[in-house]
Amino acid sequence: MTSDVQLATRPADVSARDRVDAAKNLVVSFVLNGKPLSVAVAPTELLADTLREGLGLTGTKVACGTGDCGTCTAILDGEAVRSCLMLTAMVAGKTVETIEGLAGESDIHPIQQAFIDTGAVQCGYCTPGMILAAKALLDENPKPSADDIKEAISGNLCRCTGYTKIIEAIDKVANAVA
Amino acid sequence: MRPFHYERAATPAAAVKMAGTTPMSPDQPSVATPVQYLAGGTNLLDMMKIDVMRPDRVVDINAIAETRHGGIEVSDDGMWLGALARMAEVAEHADVKHRFPVIAQSLTLAASQQLRNMASIGGNVLQRTRCPYYRDTSYAECNKRDPGSGCAALGGFNRMHAVLGTSKACIATYPGDFAQALIALDARVEITGAHGHRSMAFAELHRRPDDEPHMETRLAPGELITAFTIAALPWARRSKYLKIRDRESYEFALASAAVALDMDGDIVREARIALGGVATVPWRASAAEHEIQGKRLDERALAAAAEAAFADARVFEHNAFKIALGKRTLTRALRETAAMET
Ligand SMILES: Cc1cc2nc3c(=O)[nH]c(=O)nc-3n(C[C@H](O)[C@H](O)[C@H](O)COP(=O)(O)OP(=O)(O)OC[C@H]3O[C@@H](n4cnc5c(N)ncnc54)[C@H](O)[C@@H]3O)c2cc1C
Ligand code: SF4
Ligand code: FES
Ligand code: FES
After folding, report:
1. Lesser CB count within 10 Å: N end or C end of chain B?
2. Where are the domains of chain A?
Protein backbone atom coordinates (compact mmCIF):
# COMPACT_ATOMS: atom_id res chain seq x y z
CA MET A 1 0.00 0.00 0.00
CA THR A 2 2.76 2.40 0.89
CA SER A 3 4.58 1.82 -2.39
CA ASP A 4 2.27 4.15 -4.23
CA VAL A 5 2.64 6.98 -1.76
CA GLN A 6 4.86 9.57 -3.41
CA LEU A 7 2.98 12.74 -2.82
CA ALA A 8 4.79 16.02 -3.06
CA THR A 9 1.54 17.87 -2.61
CA ARG A 10 -1.76 16.64 -1.32
CA PRO A 11 -4.69 15.83 -3.54
CA ALA A 12 -6.91 18.85 -4.04
CA ASP A 13 -10.08 17.22 -2.70
CA VAL A 14 -8.65 17.01 0.81
CA SER A 15 -8.97 20.75 1.31
CA ALA A 16 -12.71 20.41 0.75
CA ARG A 17 -13.02 19.29 4.35
CA ASP A 18 -14.98 21.66 6.45
CA ARG A 19 -12.43 23.49 8.52
CA VAL A 20 -10.69 26.82 8.63
CA ASP A 21 -7.33 25.75 7.28
CA ALA A 22 -4.76 28.39 6.77
CA ALA A 23 -2.83 28.10 3.53
CA LYS A 24 -0.96 24.81 3.22
CA ASN A 25 2.23 26.72 3.64
CA LEU A 26 4.45 24.16 5.33
CA VAL A 27 6.34 21.51 3.48
CA VAL A 28 7.17 18.67 5.83
CA SER A 29 9.63 15.96 4.83
CA PHE A 30 9.82 12.70 6.73
CA VAL A 31 10.24 8.99 6.23
CA LEU A 32 6.98 7.07 6.21
CA ASN A 33 7.09 3.28 6.36
CA GLY A 34 10.60 3.30 4.97
CA LYS A 35 10.02 5.77 2.13
CA PRO A 36 11.02 9.44 2.21
CA LEU A 37 8.28 11.86 1.28
CA SER A 38 7.25 15.49 1.53
CA VAL A 39 3.76 16.80 2.19
CA ALA A 40 2.43 20.34 2.03
CA VAL A 41 0.23 20.99 5.05
CA ALA A 42 -1.39 23.77 6.99
CA PRO A 43 0.24 24.42 10.40
CA THR A 44 -2.97 23.23 12.07
CA GLU A 45 -2.90 19.82 10.43
CA LEU A 46 -2.60 16.83 12.75
CA LEU A 47 -0.48 13.84 11.85
CA ALA A 48 -3.52 11.55 12.05
CA ASP A 49 -5.29 13.65 9.42
CA THR A 50 -2.29 13.78 7.09
CA LEU A 51 -1.98 10.01 7.29
CA ARG A 52 -5.66 9.27 6.79
CA GLU A 53 -6.81 11.99 4.47
CA GLY A 54 -3.71 13.30 2.76
CA LEU A 55 -2.08 9.94 2.25
CA GLY A 56 -5.04 7.58 2.35
CA LEU A 57 -3.51 5.42 5.08
CA THR A 58 -6.71 4.77 6.98
CA GLY A 59 -5.31 2.01 9.18
CA THR A 60 -4.58 4.78 11.66
CA LYS A 61 -7.93 5.44 13.35
CA VAL A 62 -9.22 8.50 15.14
CA ALA A 63 -11.76 7.73 17.83
CA CYS A 64 -11.47 10.22 20.69
CA GLY A 65 -9.10 12.84 19.33
CA THR A 66 -8.13 13.78 22.89
CA GLY A 67 -5.31 11.37 23.60
CA ASP A 68 -7.42 8.94 25.58
CA CYS A 69 -7.97 5.86 23.42
CA GLY A 70 -4.83 4.96 21.43
CA THR A 71 -6.51 4.06 18.12
CA CYS A 72 -4.36 6.73 16.44
CA THR A 73 -1.08 5.18 17.62
CA ALA A 74 1.86 5.56 15.23
CA ILE A 75 5.54 4.83 15.77
CA LEU A 76 7.76 7.90 15.66
CA ASP A 77 11.53 7.30 15.66
CA GLY A 78 10.89 3.92 17.25
CA GLU A 79 8.49 5.07 19.95
CA ALA A 80 4.72 4.70 20.08
CA VAL A 81 2.96 8.08 20.03
CA ARG A 82 -0.53 9.54 19.58
CA SER A 83 -0.98 10.94 16.08
CA CYS A 84 -4.17 12.80 17.07
CA LEU A 85 -2.27 15.13 19.43
CA MET A 86 0.67 15.85 17.18
CA LEU A 87 1.05 18.36 14.38
CA THR A 88 2.34 16.98 11.12
CA ALA A 89 4.88 19.80 11.31
CA MET A 90 6.39 18.06 14.35
CA VAL A 91 7.51 14.98 12.40
CA ALA A 92 9.82 16.88 10.03
CA GLY A 93 13.04 14.91 9.63
CA LYS A 94 11.70 11.95 11.59
CA THR A 95 10.68 8.39 10.83
CA VAL A 96 7.03 7.39 11.06
CA GLU A 97 5.64 3.86 10.93
CA THR A 98 1.96 3.03 10.56
CA ILE A 99 0.14 -0.27 10.44
CA GLU A 100 0.40 -0.24 6.64
CA GLY A 101 4.18 -0.49 6.93
CA LEU A 102 4.25 -3.70 8.95
CA ALA A 103 3.55 -6.40 6.39
CA GLY A 104 6.42 -7.63 4.22
CA GLU A 105 6.24 -8.42 0.47
CA SER A 106 4.47 -11.72 0.96
CA ASP A 107 3.82 -12.16 4.67
CA ILE A 108 2.05 -10.17 7.28
CA HIS A 109 4.03 -9.24 10.40
CA PRO A 110 4.34 -11.92 13.12
CA ILE A 111 2.42 -9.71 15.54
CA GLN A 112 -0.43 -9.42 13.04
CA GLN A 113 -0.39 -13.19 12.56
CA ALA A 114 -0.42 -13.77 16.32
CA PHE A 115 -3.43 -11.48 16.72
CA ILE A 116 -5.30 -13.55 14.12
CA ASP A 117 -4.19 -16.90 15.54
CA THR A 118 -5.08 -15.96 19.10
CA GLY A 119 -8.44 -14.43 18.32
CA ALA A 120 -7.28 -11.03 19.60
CA VAL A 121 -9.35 -9.17 16.99
CA GLN A 122 -13.08 -8.66 17.33
CA CYS A 123 -14.47 -5.46 15.83
CA GLY A 124 -10.90 -4.54 14.90
CA TYR A 125 -11.08 -0.85 15.67
CA CYS A 126 -8.37 -0.91 18.32
CA THR A 127 -6.25 -3.46 16.45
CA PRO A 128 -3.86 -1.25 14.44
CA GLY A 129 -3.06 0.80 17.54
CA MET A 130 -2.62 -2.30 19.69
CA ILE A 131 -0.30 -3.92 17.17
CA LEU A 132 1.83 -0.78 16.86
CA ALA A 133 2.03 -0.39 20.65
CA ALA A 134 3.09 -4.04 20.78
CA LYS A 135 5.68 -3.56 18.03
CA ALA A 136 7.24 -0.56 19.76
CA LEU A 137 7.45 -2.64 22.94
CA LEU A 138 8.97 -5.74 21.32
CA ASP A 139 11.48 -3.73 19.29
CA GLU A 140 12.83 -2.32 22.52
CA ASN A 141 12.19 -5.23 24.85
CA PRO A 142 11.92 -8.56 23.01
CA LYS A 143 11.19 -10.56 26.17
CA PRO A 144 8.61 -8.48 28.05
CA SER A 145 6.94 -9.71 31.21
CA ALA A 146 3.16 -9.83 31.41
CA ASP A 147 3.32 -6.56 33.35
CA ASP A 148 5.49 -4.94 30.68
CA ILE A 149 2.90 -5.94 28.07
CA LYS A 150 0.03 -4.60 30.12
CA GLU A 151 1.85 -1.34 30.70
CA ALA A 152 2.70 -0.94 27.01
CA ILE A 153 -0.93 -1.32 25.92
CA SER A 154 -2.50 0.40 28.92
CA GLY A 155 -3.06 3.50 26.81
CA ASN A 156 -4.95 1.54 24.15
CA LEU A 157 -8.59 0.97 24.88
CA CYS A 158 -10.43 -2.09 23.58
CA ARG A 159 -14.17 -2.37 24.11
CA CYS A 160 -14.52 -5.93 22.76
CA THR A 161 -11.88 -8.42 23.79
CA GLY A 162 -11.37 -7.83 27.48
CA TYR A 163 -7.62 -7.57 26.67
CA THR A 164 -6.79 -11.16 27.66
CA LYS A 165 -6.39 -12.39 24.09
CA ILE A 166 -4.41 -9.32 23.12
CA ILE A 167 -1.92 -9.87 25.94
CA GLU A 168 -1.75 -13.56 24.97
CA ALA A 169 -1.04 -12.68 21.34
CA ILE A 170 1.82 -10.33 22.24
CA ASP A 171 3.23 -12.86 24.67
CA LYS A 172 3.09 -15.52 21.98
CA VAL A 173 5.18 -13.43 19.58
CA ALA A 174 7.70 -12.64 22.31
CA ASN A 175 8.14 -16.30 23.10
CA ALA A 176 8.35 -17.35 19.44
CA VAL A 177 11.11 -14.80 18.80
CA ALA A 178 13.33 -16.35 21.47
CA MET B 1 -8.48 24.08 15.39
CA ARG B 2 -8.17 27.76 14.59
CA PRO B 3 -5.38 28.88 12.29
CA PHE B 4 -2.14 30.05 13.89
CA HIS B 5 1.29 31.12 12.80
CA TYR B 6 3.85 28.34 13.29
CA GLU B 7 7.55 28.82 14.00
CA ARG B 8 10.38 26.65 15.27
CA ALA B 9 13.03 27.63 17.81
CA ALA B 10 16.22 25.62 18.36
CA THR B 11 17.50 27.36 21.50
CA PRO B 12 15.83 28.86 24.57
CA ALA B 13 17.11 32.31 23.58
CA ALA B 14 15.59 32.01 20.11
CA ALA B 15 12.26 30.84 21.55
CA VAL B 16 12.03 33.74 23.97
CA LYS B 17 12.95 36.18 21.23
CA MET B 18 10.27 34.82 18.91
CA ALA B 19 7.62 34.93 21.63
CA GLY B 20 8.68 38.47 22.56
CA THR B 21 7.68 39.94 19.22
CA THR B 22 4.00 39.81 20.22
CA PRO B 23 3.06 42.27 22.95
CA MET B 24 1.41 40.38 25.83
CA SER B 25 -0.41 41.73 28.85
CA PRO B 26 0.63 40.21 32.18
CA ASP B 27 -2.99 40.35 33.41
CA GLN B 28 -4.74 38.34 30.75
CA PRO B 29 -5.88 34.82 31.62
CA SER B 30 -3.04 32.30 31.29
CA VAL B 31 -5.20 30.28 28.95
CA ALA B 32 -5.57 33.25 26.59
CA THR B 33 -1.86 34.00 26.16
CA PRO B 34 -1.60 34.63 22.41
CA VAL B 35 1.80 32.95 21.98
CA GLN B 36 2.18 29.36 23.16
CA TYR B 37 5.24 27.19 23.22
CA LEU B 38 4.68 23.75 21.70
CA ALA B 39 6.55 20.91 23.37
CA GLY B 40 4.90 17.46 23.25
CA GLY B 41 1.62 19.13 22.36
CA THR B 42 -0.34 16.59 24.39
CA ASN B 43 -2.01 19.30 26.42
CA LEU B 44 -1.73 22.34 24.16
CA LEU B 45 -3.15 20.68 21.03
CA ASP B 46 -5.88 19.05 23.08
CA MET B 47 -6.85 22.46 24.50
CA MET B 48 -6.74 24.00 21.02
CA LYS B 49 -8.91 21.25 19.53
CA ILE B 50 -11.59 21.84 22.16
CA ASP B 51 -11.25 25.58 21.42
CA VAL B 52 -10.37 26.61 24.98
CA MET B 53 -6.97 27.83 23.80
CA ARG B 54 -6.75 29.95 20.68
CA PRO B 55 -3.18 31.15 20.29
CA ASP B 56 -2.27 33.36 17.32
CA ARG B 57 1.24 31.97 17.33
CA VAL B 58 2.71 28.61 18.24
CA VAL B 59 6.47 28.40 18.80
CA ASP B 60 7.60 24.79 18.42
CA ILE B 61 10.41 24.28 20.94
CA ASN B 62 11.07 20.60 20.27
CA ALA B 63 14.39 21.27 18.54
CA ILE B 64 15.65 22.55 21.91
CA ALA B 65 15.61 18.88 22.95
CA GLU B 66 18.78 18.47 20.86
CA THR B 67 20.60 20.82 23.26
CA ARG B 68 21.47 20.28 26.90
CA HIS B 69 17.88 21.23 27.70
CA GLY B 70 16.63 17.88 26.43
CA GLY B 71 18.90 15.97 28.77
CA ILE B 72 19.23 14.61 32.28
CA GLU B 73 22.40 15.24 34.32
CA VAL B 74 22.94 13.41 37.59
CA SER B 75 25.95 14.07 39.81
CA ASP B 76 26.82 13.70 43.50
CA ASP B 77 25.46 17.21 44.04
CA GLY B 78 22.05 16.40 42.66
CA MET B 79 20.17 16.39 39.41
CA TRP B 80 19.49 18.78 36.56
CA LEU B 81 16.55 17.97 34.32
CA GLY B 82 16.20 19.80 31.00
CA ALA B 83 12.65 21.02 30.41
CA LEU B 84 12.50 19.25 27.05
CA ALA B 85 13.38 15.85 28.50
CA ARG B 86 10.47 13.52 27.82
CA MET B 87 8.45 12.05 30.68
CA ALA B 88 9.42 8.53 29.54
CA GLU B 89 13.15 9.33 29.46
CA VAL B 90 13.15 10.67 33.00
CA ALA B 91 10.89 7.87 34.28
CA GLU B 92 13.13 5.16 32.83
CA HIS B 93 16.52 6.70 33.73
CA ALA B 94 18.41 4.30 36.02
CA ASP B 95 19.93 6.99 38.29
CA VAL B 96 16.62 8.79 38.63
CA LYS B 97 14.87 5.58 39.64
CA HIS B 98 17.58 4.72 42.13
CA ARG B 99 18.44 8.09 43.66
CA PHE B 100 15.19 10.03 43.25
CA PRO B 101 12.52 7.30 43.18
CA VAL B 102 9.60 9.66 43.81
CA ILE B 103 10.41 11.47 40.56
CA ALA B 104 10.51 8.31 38.43
CA GLN B 105 7.37 6.90 40.06
CA SER B 106 5.33 10.08 39.64
CA LEU B 107 6.08 10.00 35.91
CA THR B 108 5.60 6.26 35.40
CA LEU B 109 2.19 6.43 37.06
CA ALA B 110 1.07 9.28 34.77
CA ALA B 111 -0.75 9.12 31.43
CA SER B 112 0.17 6.25 29.06
CA GLN B 113 3.37 5.04 27.39
CA GLN B 114 2.53 6.85 24.14
CA LEU B 115 1.87 10.12 25.95
CA ARG B 116 4.97 9.79 28.12
CA ASN B 117 7.05 9.27 24.97
CA MET B 118 5.78 12.57 23.58
CA ALA B 119 5.27 14.81 26.59
CA SER B 120 8.05 16.99 28.02
CA ILE B 121 8.52 17.52 31.73
CA GLY B 122 8.34 21.31 31.24
CA GLY B 123 4.94 20.99 29.57
CA ASN B 124 3.89 18.49 32.21
CA VAL B 125 4.07 20.92 35.12
CA LEU B 126 2.07 23.45 33.10
CA GLN B 127 -0.73 21.10 32.08
CA ARG B 128 -4.14 22.57 32.69
CA THR B 129 -6.86 21.41 35.02
CA ARG B 130 -9.23 18.72 33.79
CA CYS B 131 -12.25 20.55 35.27
CA PRO B 132 -14.95 19.58 32.73
CA TYR B 133 -16.52 23.05 32.79
CA TYR B 134 -13.21 24.73 32.02
CA ARG B 135 -12.75 22.29 29.14
CA ASP B 136 -16.18 22.90 27.63
CA THR B 137 -16.80 26.33 26.16
CA SER B 138 -20.55 25.73 26.05
CA TYR B 139 -20.48 26.56 29.79
CA ALA B 140 -20.27 30.33 30.06
CA GLU B 141 -19.40 30.23 33.76
CA CYS B 142 -15.73 29.64 34.39
CA ASN B 143 -13.60 32.20 36.19
CA LYS B 144 -10.41 30.53 35.09
CA ARG B 145 -11.28 30.93 31.41
CA ASP B 146 -13.29 34.09 31.66
CA PRO B 147 -12.63 36.19 34.78
CA GLY B 148 -15.79 37.23 36.61
CA SER B 149 -18.08 34.80 34.78
CA GLY B 150 -18.68 32.54 37.80
CA CYS B 151 -17.88 28.90 38.49
CA ALA B 152 -20.06 26.16 37.03
CA ALA B 153 -18.39 23.50 39.19
CA LEU B 154 -19.58 25.00 42.50
CA GLY B 155 -23.16 24.00 41.80
CA GLY B 156 -22.28 21.32 39.27
CA PHE B 157 -20.69 17.89 39.32
CA ASN B 158 -17.62 18.32 41.47
CA ARG B 159 -16.55 14.82 42.46
CA MET B 160 -13.08 15.32 40.93
CA HIS B 161 -12.60 18.80 42.36
CA ALA B 162 -10.26 20.02 45.09
CA VAL B 163 -10.76 20.16 48.84
CA LEU B 164 -7.57 22.11 49.66
CA GLY B 165 -6.62 25.58 48.45
CA THR B 166 -10.01 26.31 46.94
CA SER B 167 -11.57 29.76 46.77
CA LYS B 168 -15.02 31.16 46.14
CA ALA B 169 -13.92 31.71 42.57
CA CYS B 170 -12.51 28.30 41.62
CA ILE B 171 -12.22 24.77 43.00
CA ALA B 172 -10.42 23.10 40.09
CA THR B 173 -7.89 20.37 40.90
CA TYR B 174 -4.29 20.55 39.73
CA PRO B 175 -4.20 17.30 37.73
CA GLY B 176 -0.51 16.38 37.39
CA ASP B 177 1.70 13.99 39.35
CA PHE B 178 5.32 14.99 38.70
CA ALA B 179 4.87 18.42 40.33
CA GLN B 180 4.22 16.85 43.73
CA ALA B 181 7.47 14.87 43.43
CA LEU B 182 9.36 18.07 42.64
CA ILE B 183 7.93 19.71 45.75
CA ALA B 184 8.84 16.75 47.95
CA LEU B 185 12.47 17.16 46.83
CA ASP B 186 12.64 20.98 47.23
CA ALA B 187 13.19 21.38 43.48
CA ARG B 188 13.85 24.70 41.82
CA VAL B 189 12.68 25.74 38.39
CA GLU B 190 14.91 27.65 35.98
CA ILE B 191 13.25 30.21 33.77
CA THR B 192 14.41 32.37 30.92
CA GLY B 193 12.60 35.36 29.50
CA ALA B 194 12.98 38.67 27.75
CA HIS B 195 14.65 40.08 30.86
CA GLY B 196 17.14 37.27 31.33
CA HIS B 197 17.32 34.20 33.54
CA ARG B 198 15.82 33.62 36.95
CA SER B 199 15.00 30.68 39.15
CA MET B 200 12.47 30.09 41.90
CA ALA B 201 11.42 27.37 44.30
CA PHE B 202 9.20 25.07 42.26
CA ALA B 203 6.59 25.25 45.03
CA GLU B 204 6.15 28.94 44.12
CA LEU B 205 5.40 28.34 40.45
CA HIS B 206 1.68 27.64 40.69
CA ARG B 207 -0.72 30.22 42.06
CA ARG B 208 -3.66 29.34 44.24
CA PRO B 209 -6.91 30.49 42.69
CA ASP B 210 -7.89 33.05 45.39
CA ASP B 211 -9.83 35.73 43.52
CA GLU B 212 -7.74 35.45 40.35
CA PRO B 213 -8.03 31.82 39.22
CA HIS B 214 -7.25 32.88 35.66
CA MET B 215 -3.65 33.57 36.71
CA GLU B 216 -2.44 29.98 36.82
CA THR B 217 1.30 30.37 37.41
CA ARG B 218 3.94 32.97 38.25
CA LEU B 219 5.47 32.77 34.77
CA ALA B 220 5.19 36.02 32.85
CA PRO B 221 3.77 35.62 29.33
CA GLY B 222 6.59 34.49 27.04
CA GLU B 223 8.79 33.11 29.82
CA LEU B 224 10.22 29.67 29.14
CA ILE B 225 10.99 26.95 31.66
CA THR B 226 14.46 25.66 30.82
CA ALA B 227 15.20 23.17 33.60
CA PHE B 228 14.45 21.76 37.04
CA THR B 229 17.18 21.32 39.64
CA ILE B 230 17.15 19.01 42.63
CA ALA B 231 19.89 18.89 45.25
CA ALA B 232 21.06 15.49 46.52
CA LEU B 233 19.24 15.94 49.82
CA PRO B 234 19.42 13.16 52.40
CA TRP B 235 15.72 12.39 51.95
CA ALA B 236 15.81 12.05 48.15
CA ARG B 237 16.54 8.33 48.13
CA ARG B 238 13.87 7.41 50.67
CA SER B 239 11.05 8.84 48.65
CA LYS B 240 7.87 7.54 47.12
CA TYR B 241 4.84 8.51 45.06
CA LEU B 242 1.52 6.85 45.87
CA LYS B 243 -1.35 7.52 43.48
CA ILE B 244 -4.94 6.43 44.04
CA ARG B 245 -7.35 6.58 41.10
CA ASP B 246 -10.67 5.23 39.89
CA ARG B 247 -8.89 2.49 37.94
CA GLU B 248 -5.44 1.08 38.43
CA SER B 249 -3.76 2.56 35.40
CA TYR B 250 -4.01 5.47 33.00
CA GLU B 251 -6.15 7.82 35.04
CA PHE B 252 -5.70 11.08 36.90
CA ALA B 253 -5.32 10.94 40.68
CA LEU B 254 -8.25 11.10 43.07
CA ALA B 255 -5.64 11.48 45.79
CA SER B 256 -1.89 11.13 45.76
CA ALA B 257 1.05 11.69 48.06
CA ALA B 258 4.71 12.36 47.30
CA VAL B 259 6.68 11.62 50.44
CA ALA B 260 10.38 11.92 51.25
CA LEU B 261 11.86 11.03 54.62
CA ASP B 262 15.23 11.32 56.26
CA MET B 263 15.24 8.75 59.07
CA ASP B 264 17.47 8.41 62.09
CA GLY B 265 16.66 4.84 63.07
CA ASP B 266 12.90 4.97 63.50
CA ILE B 267 12.83 8.70 64.20
CA VAL B 268 11.94 11.09 61.39
CA ARG B 269 14.76 13.60 61.11
CA GLU B 270 13.26 15.50 58.19
CA ALA B 271 10.07 15.04 56.17
CA ARG B 272 8.62 16.38 52.95
CA ILE B 273 5.01 15.79 51.93
CA ALA B 274 3.20 16.98 48.83
CA LEU B 275 -0.38 16.05 47.98
CA GLY B 276 -2.02 15.67 44.58
CA GLY B 277 -5.55 15.09 43.32
CA VAL B 278 -7.01 16.92 46.31
CA ALA B 279 -5.74 20.48 45.88
CA THR B 280 -5.92 23.38 43.47
CA VAL B 281 -2.14 23.52 43.13
CA PRO B 282 0.68 21.01 43.78
CA TRP B 283 0.27 21.08 47.56
CA ARG B 284 2.99 21.11 50.16
CA ALA B 285 1.52 19.74 53.41
CA SER B 286 3.80 21.63 55.81
CA ALA B 287 1.53 21.14 58.84
CA ALA B 288 1.65 17.38 58.33
CA GLU B 289 5.45 17.49 58.06
CA HIS B 290 5.61 19.30 61.43
CA GLU B 291 3.55 16.57 63.07
CA ILE B 292 6.12 13.88 62.33
CA GLN B 293 9.41 15.76 62.36
CA GLY B 294 11.58 14.53 65.26
CA LYS B 295 9.07 11.80 66.10
CA ARG B 296 8.73 8.05 65.85
CA LEU B 297 6.38 7.24 62.98
CA ASP B 298 3.82 5.36 65.07
CA GLU B 299 0.06 5.20 64.55
CA ARG B 300 -0.45 8.32 66.65
CA ALA B 301 1.99 10.38 64.65
CA LEU B 302 0.53 9.11 61.38
CA ALA B 303 -2.98 10.01 62.46
CA ALA B 304 -1.83 13.46 63.60
CA ALA B 305 -0.12 14.07 60.26
CA ALA B 306 -3.22 13.04 58.30
CA GLU B 307 -5.41 15.20 60.52
CA ALA B 308 -3.13 18.20 60.08
CA ALA B 309 -2.91 17.76 56.32
CA PHE B 310 -6.67 18.05 55.91
CA ALA B 311 -7.51 20.36 58.82
CA ASP B 312 -8.35 23.21 56.44
CA ALA B 313 -10.12 21.07 53.85
CA ARG B 314 -13.40 22.29 52.46
CA VAL B 315 -15.71 19.86 50.70
CA PHE B 316 -18.35 20.34 48.03
CA GLU B 317 -21.42 18.36 47.07
CA HIS B 318 -19.74 15.30 45.53
CA ASN B 319 -16.18 15.24 46.83
CA ALA B 320 -16.38 14.82 50.62
CA PHE B 321 -14.86 11.34 50.16
CA LYS B 322 -11.55 12.97 49.28
CA ILE B 323 -10.77 13.79 52.91
CA ALA B 324 -10.87 10.17 54.10
CA LEU B 325 -9.20 8.98 50.91
CA GLY B 326 -6.52 11.67 51.11
CA LYS B 327 -5.73 10.85 54.74
CA ARG B 328 -5.42 7.14 54.04
CA THR B 329 -3.29 7.81 50.97
CA LEU B 330 -0.95 9.93 53.06
CA THR B 331 -0.64 7.51 55.98
CA ARG B 332 -0.03 4.58 53.65
CA ALA B 333 2.60 6.53 51.71
CA LEU B 334 4.36 7.52 54.95
CA ARG B 335 4.35 3.96 56.26
CA GLU B 336 5.67 2.52 53.01
CA THR B 337 8.34 5.19 52.68
CA ALA B 338 9.57 4.63 56.22
CA ALA B 339 9.82 0.90 55.48
CA MET B 340 11.89 1.38 52.30
CA GLU B 341 15.34 -0.19 52.10
CA THR B 342 17.78 2.52 51.02
C1 LIG C 1 -5.38 11.05 28.05
C2 LIG C 1 -4.41 11.77 28.93
C3 LIG C 1 -4.12 11.29 30.18
C4 LIG C 1 -3.19 11.95 30.99
N5 LIG C 1 -2.94 11.47 32.24
C6 LIG C 1 -2.05 12.12 33.04
C7 LIG C 1 -1.75 11.68 34.35
O8 LIG C 1 -2.27 10.66 34.81
N9 LIG C 1 -0.86 12.39 35.09
C10 LIG C 1 -0.23 13.50 34.60
O11 LIG C 1 0.59 14.10 35.30
N12 LIG C 1 -0.51 13.96 33.37
C13 LIG C 1 -1.40 13.30 32.59
N14 LIG C 1 -1.68 13.79 31.35
C15 LIG C 1 -1.15 15.09 30.96
C16 LIG C 1 0.17 14.99 30.24
O17 LIG C 1 1.14 14.49 31.12
C18 LIG C 1 0.52 16.40 29.78
O19 LIG C 1 -0.36 16.71 28.72
C20 LIG C 1 1.94 16.53 29.29
O21 LIG C 1 2.85 16.25 30.30
C22 LIG C 1 2.19 17.94 28.77
O23 LIG C 1 3.49 18.01 28.25
P24 LIG C 1 3.73 18.47 26.73
O25 LIG C 1 5.19 18.49 26.50
O26 LIG C 1 2.93 17.63 25.80
O27 LIG C 1 3.16 19.93 26.81
P28 LIG C 1 2.46 20.84 25.71
O29 LIG C 1 1.11 20.34 25.44
O30 LIG C 1 3.37 21.02 24.55
O31 LIG C 1 2.39 22.21 26.51
C32 LIG C 1 1.53 22.42 27.60
C33 LIG C 1 1.58 23.89 28.01
O34 LIG C 1 2.85 24.22 28.54
C35 LIG C 1 3.48 25.23 27.78
N36 LIG C 1 4.91 24.85 27.72
C37 LIG C 1 5.42 23.66 27.32
N38 LIG C 1 6.74 23.61 27.55
C39 LIG C 1 7.08 24.81 28.11
C40 LIG C 1 8.30 25.38 28.59
N41 LIG C 1 9.45 24.70 28.55
N42 LIG C 1 8.26 26.63 29.10
C43 LIG C 1 7.11 27.33 29.16
N44 LIG C 1 5.93 26.86 28.72
C45 LIG C 1 5.91 25.60 28.21
C46 LIG C 1 2.80 25.23 26.45
O47 LIG C 1 2.85 26.52 25.86
C48 LIG C 1 1.37 24.84 26.84
O49 LIG C 1 0.67 25.96 27.32
C50 LIG C 1 -2.57 13.13 30.51
C51 LIG C 1 -2.85 13.61 29.24
C52 LIG C 1 -3.75 12.95 28.44
C53 LIG C 1 -4.03 13.49 27.07
S1 SF4 D 1 -13.67 25.06 39.16
FE2 SF4 D 1 -12.38 26.66 38.24
S3 SF4 D 1 -11.94 25.83 36.23
FE4 SF4 D 1 -13.76 24.71 36.95
S5 SF4 D 1 -15.56 25.91 36.28
FE6 SF4 D 1 -15.01 26.67 38.30
S7 SF4 D 1 -13.70 28.44 37.82
FE8 SF4 D 1 -13.72 27.18 35.98
S1 FES E 1 -7.75 9.19 18.65
FE2 FES E 1 -5.78 9.61 19.42
S3 FES E 1 -5.87 8.78 21.40
FE4 FES E 1 -7.93 8.51 20.68
S1 FES F 1 -11.50 -5.44 19.04
FE2 FES F 1 -13.14 -4.01 19.15
S3 FES F 1 -12.21 -2.36 20.26
FE4 FES F 1 -10.72 -3.90 20.40
Report:
1. C
2. 2-101, 110-177
Architecture of the B68-342 domain: 2-Layer Sandwich (3.30)
Q: What is the pLDDT of residue A3?
A: 37
Phi and psi based region of residue B73 (left: phi greater than 0; alpha: psi -120 to 50; beta: remaining) = beta
Q: What is the Cα–Cα distance from A173 to B334, expressed in whole angstroms?
A: 41
Supply the CATH classification number for the domain A2-101: 3.10.20.30
Q: Note the Cα A82 to chain centre separation in Å.
A: 8
Domains A2-101 and A110-177 share a fold: no
Rounded to a whole number of angstroms, the distance between the first and last alpha carbons of chain A is: 30
- In this model, does residue A177 exceed pLDDT 90? no
Residue A75 and residue A91: Cα distance in Å, rounded? 11
In this complex, is the C-beta atom of A74 within 8 Å of any C-beta atom belonging to chain B? Answer: no
Whether this model's pTM surpasses 0.90: yes
Is any Cβ of chain B less than 8 angstroms from the Cβ of A138?
no
What would the mean pLDDT of B57-86 be, rounded to a whole number?
97
**Domain-wise residue ranges, chain B:** 5-62, 68-342
Q: Give the model confidence (pLDDT) of B252-265 as tens digits.
A: 999 999 999 999 99
CATH superfamily for A110-177 is [2Fe-2S]-binding domain (1.10.150.120)
For residue B79, what are the β-bridge partners? B74, B230
Q: Smallest Cα–Cα separation from B253: which of B287, B232, B282?
A: B282
Residues of A in contact with B249 (CB under 8 A): 150-151, 154
In terms of CA atoms, which chain B residue is nearest residue A65? Answer: B46
- Say yes or no: A81 contacts chain B, CB-CB below 8 A: yes
Pick the CATH number of B5-62 from 3.30.43, 3.40.50, 2.60.40, 3.40.190: 3.30.43
pLDDT band at B341 (very low <50, low <70, confident <90, very high): confident
B45, A86: Cβ pair inside 8 Å? Answer: yes
